[in-house]
Amino acid sequence: MDQKKDLLLVIDMQNVYLPGQEWSCPSMKESIKNICSLLDRNAAEHMAFTQFLPSKDPVGTWKQYNIENREINENAWLNEIVEELQPYAEGHPRYPLYHKSVYSSMKIPEIAHLASQVDRIVLTGVVAECCVLSTMMEAIDMGCQVIYLTDCISGQSSRNEDAIRKIAESFSPLHTLVMTSEEYLHQKTGI
Q1: Is residue 1 part of a domain?
Q2: CATH code at 75?
């Protein structure tokens, strides 16, 4: 049984990434199911959610980002956490929800602080090739070991998911560990 303290980070699981939506991640439904399983089993000592919301005062290319994505940014439902995860992410003290307006979750001061209090960061969420990758790289630079859960991370295609998994594997075993949610649960609980 693993005695390391972990932060389970659920990145940007918002409606806009559901299959059929503008920024669809086809495997998202499977990721939702696996993330719910981790949360229900209290898989990690600390858990947190992030939600991407556009900056009210964007700088540089974020200004153009906001212009090009105005319709999505202004649609409240698209920006909400998916229905299955709302009971965890909305108002539950065990699962705080933090907002960000950049890709990396490590830019959130509370997340960076939580990361400094644990042994590892367990990554789940969307989008593999964007916010998850950015968070992973910054966490590595901060000296955090990252667990990349392949069946809890969705990209905009299986090809993109495979590419990011290979990047995560290239940092293993020192900076990253790549596994499924069941392998992680087995490692944590011995069951």
Answers
A1: no
A2: 3.40.50.850
